[in-house]
Amino acid sequence: MLGAAAGSSQIPPDTILINGVIRTMDDKRPLAEAIAISDGRIVAVGTSRQIKALSSPGTTVIDARGRLVLPGFNDAHVHFIGVGNWFSHLDSKDISNTTELLEKVRHFTRHLPKGRWLIGARLDLAKWKGPMPTLERLDAVSPDNPIILYLSDPTSAVVNSAARSRARVAPEGLILSGPQVARIRSAIPADHGTNWAEIAETASNYAASFGVTSVQDVHSDNLLDTYRQMAKAGRLKTRIYECVGMPGWLLDNSIAPRAATGDDTVRGGCIKTFSDASVEEKPELVDRITRADKAGHQVLIHAIGRRANANVVAAFAAAIEKNGPRDRRFRIEHAHNIDGPEIARLRALGIIPSMQPALFYDGGDVGDDYPLLLRSGANVAFGSDASMIDIDPLMGLHASVNSGANSISVETAVRAYTLGSAYAEFQEKQKGSIMVGKLADLVILSRDIFSIPKHEIRNTKVETTILGGRIIYSTDRGAK
Ligand SMILES: [Zn+2]
């Protein structure tokens, strides 16, 4: 099965990954043990012996220690700023002892960019059990991120030394009150809640901890320039495909580039809109799709329910009829409860169902649209819809393979979350499978989800995340 190494041995790899159980999602070579990486891309795939032979003294070796290696996950539907904003504020009302407090702070600061403030409120000392932590212990878990956690009475607050030094307040005791709290508060940057780069960087760090190396940000805000600047500054651990909302695009056509344009890290060109079950909106919807499609954009439409999905398929069909054939990859976001006859039309028109199994995991069943759409031959993309739900792809994989009669195979689910999502953003030649020439975006899992009992998949953790050949997360080294 492993055969000869694919790829060239003339390129000296800067990184090699060995001793893995590598599921490539490449039908020509579904299994391998090792990968050679040069300049962020995969240059060879083969056995550990073959790949080891390519290494030179300067080569970094990543030993997967027999663990499962997959292409990095590609979340086809996220609201990235929403994810980052989970960490913009810490609701402290349920924290009642030192262990909980330090654990929460550690969790937050692990994902926050260095220097970003951690702001919390409603810390209730009336229900506190045991001694408070010392300032030294708080500083030890957060040396670089200033912290202010307001008590139930917000004139007092727990404040760490990083925050005190920003406000030039003396470093004595854990809790400050009165004018000292006011001084700390005035040191918090005014744009804490709107610093999109810091918030997106937080989301990126968090996504890396779940093996997510690519996201398709369907948030309607126009953040393409912010993401580009972040990529330039080395602040992104995620490749981002950014979509803008149809209303914004109608007002200003210049906010979106043509479909899927950009570099390997940041790309844009998709336009997202909604459909509800009303029949009246149809002519307007067709008109908007036709205009955006004609301008070279990819159009994504949110649809949930039988009627809404039927409307969208009909509207897409009408737009295709008007503008003629091209590789446009229209997408239905959610496609939840789509009807049987629509599935055949969708498949024939090349429309992509972009689905979120964990979001629709009602009563232990994702519903029959998952197996029906996948069996139809449609290109299904998987995602989470975070921040509606956590971004963890293992939750989506768990849901789609633990759905009774509607379960799909682990292989099919992983493929939808990698190659399927890559296709949905016109990037299937760049990523989504482990093949020579593709970007070296990889994830190493704690357990082999292809062989363990399916109900245990949800307990599987990401051990290492690799983006462009670089380790961006590992359970040994943390997220930074
Ligand atoms: Zn959404």
Task: Give the arrangement of secondary structure elements.
Blueprint lengths: L5 E2 L7 E4 L2 E3 L7 E2 L1 E5 L2 E6 L1 H5 L7 E4 L4 E4 L1 E6 L1 H6 L4 E2 L6 H14 L6 E6 L11 H7 L5 E5 L4 E4 L1 H7 L7 E3 L1 H9 L8 H13 L3 E6 L6 H9 L6 E7 H6 L9 E2 L3 E9 L7 H13 L3 E7 L1 H18 L7 E6 L3 H10 L2 E4 L13 H8 L4 E2 L10 H9 L8 H15 L17 E4 L16 E6 L2 E5 L6
Parallel strand pairs: 2-7, 3-8, 9-15, 10-11, 11-12, 15-16, 16-18, 18-19, 19-20, 20-21, 21-22
Antiparallel strand pairs: 1-6, 2-5, 3-4, 5-6, 8-23, 12-13, 13-14, 17-18, 23-24, 24-25
Helix pairs in contact: 5-6, 10-11, 11-12, 12-13, 14-15
What labels describe this entry?
globular; 3 domains; alpha/beta; binds zinc ion; Diaminopimelate Epimerase, Chain A, domain 1; 480 residues; TIM Barrel
Average pLDDT for all residues: 94
Number of domains: 3
Task: Give the name of the CATH superfamily of the largest domain.
Answer: Metal-dependent hydrolases
Number of strands: 25
Q: Tell me about the biggest sheet?
A: 9 strands, mixed
CATH architecture of the largest domain: Alpha-Beta Barrel
Write up this protein.
By secondary structure, the protein is of the alpha/beta class. It folds into three domains: 6-66, Roll (Urease, subunit C, domain 1), CATH 2.30.40; 89-187, Diaminopimelate Epimerase, Chain A, domain 1 (Roll); 196-422, Alpha-Beta Barrel (TIM Barrel), CATH 3.20.20.140. It is 31% helix and 24% strand. The chain has 15 helices and 25 strands. Strands 9, 15, 16, 17, 18, 19, 20, 21 and 22 form a nine-stranded mixed sheet that branches. It has a six-stranded mixed sheet with strand order 4-3-8-23-24-25, covered by helices on one side. It has a five-stranded mixed sheet with strand order 1-6-5-2-7. The model has no long low-confidence stretch (mean pLDDT 94). It binds zinc ion. Zinc ion is lined by residues 77, 79, 218, 385. Zinc ion (ZN) binds at residues 77, 79, 218, 385.
